[in-house]
Amino acid sequence: MNWGVFAAATWVFFGLELGLRSALEIGTSGVAPSFVIPFAVFIALWAPTNVGAVACLLLGLLVDLTWLVPTESGGAAIAGPHALGFFLMAHLVAAARSIIIRRNPLTLVALSVVGSIVVHVVVVALVTLHTVIEPLQWAPTAEIVRRLGSSVYTGVVALAVALIAYPLVPIFGFPHSTPGPRFTSRRE
């Protein structure tokens, strides 16, 4: 994988996440799409397993650093919940690669919804456990409901991400990103 292209794309997707997420929120429900999760699923779908896991871990850590958990004194960044969630999501996507069609944009949509659910369940569980150590303004049931709605909404955004990102697969430098010969076996 070309890490320079990954860094540039990360910058773009975090810009979209931080700039458009609140604008696309449904009313005051807190249900809003993620732009970073479909990008992470895209990376995990095409990159070698270990490289995809490291890239997703880094993306999750960046989300942790830009997300504030509500506290009584305002907010605090907790490094770890998203990083672990993204890491597990990367391994889920890597495990699913053998039974999916990578080039189909609907694959990215479906895996983004499922991956988003994995990330959000991990985040809610870890932050809920953290409330034992430090009191937070955190309602786990309301959070999980809001985040499940956001997971479905992320699937809609994933279709747009797929239509933009799939033509850029060769630029990322993923191994075996170009289609092989038709009707013959590929020698590796």
Please provide a brief summary of the model.
The chain has 188 residues and is mainly alpha-helical. 63% of the residues lie in helices and 3% in strands. The chain has one domain: Arp2/3 complex 21 kDa subunit ARPC3 (Orthogonal Bundle), CATH 1.10.1760.
Strand order of the largest sheet: 1-2
CATH architecture: Orthogonal Bundle
Q: According to CATH, what is the class?
A: Mainly Alpha
- Please state the CA-atom Rg, rounded to the nearest Å: 17 Å
Helix content: 55-70%
Percent in strands: under 5%
Shape: globular
- Based on DSSP secondary structure assignment, what is the total number of beta strands? 2
Spans of at least 5 consecutive residues with low confidence = 180-184
Q: pLDDT average, as an integer?
A: 90
Order of helices and strands: HHHEEHHHH
SS field, number of helical segments: 7
Give the tally of structural domains: 1
Briefly note the structural class of the backbone: mainly alpha
- Major sheet: 2 strands, antiparallel
Termini separation comes to: 18 Å
CATH topology: Arp2/3 complex 21 kDa subunit ARPC3
